Amino acid sequence: MNGKTILVVDDDAVFVLGLSMILRSEGFEVLTAKDGASTVSALHQGKPDLILMDIFFPPDVEHGGSVSWDGFRIMDWLRAMGGAGNIPVIFMTAADQIEYVERARKAGAVGLFQKTVETTELLGLIHQLLD
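Below the sequence we write its predicted structure tokens.
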């Protein structure tokens, strides 16, 4: 193990499981979260070295919210609360990523990737940031 921890934030349990398996096979510890509230809980378990975050989340009705939080809002909230400080964030989306490139850059993300089964480029950036 390389001692680096990655927090994967995504509401798609199948995607999280698959990506977690890939990351663990690369030697990373993996924490997971499915929404803003569980992201805060995961950060209390241990500060990750990197966050991989989906852009879109359904409304958080479990915690009384009817408005959906997106990854940008979660990232802003974590940084405002001091929970994510200088942790690099890579956004992921199943939507057309071209639409979000500028917004991700302005939010301070270090990358934006299309959700796909091809992970070579994503893993390359992760290793570049954490090795």
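The longest helix spans residues 13-25.
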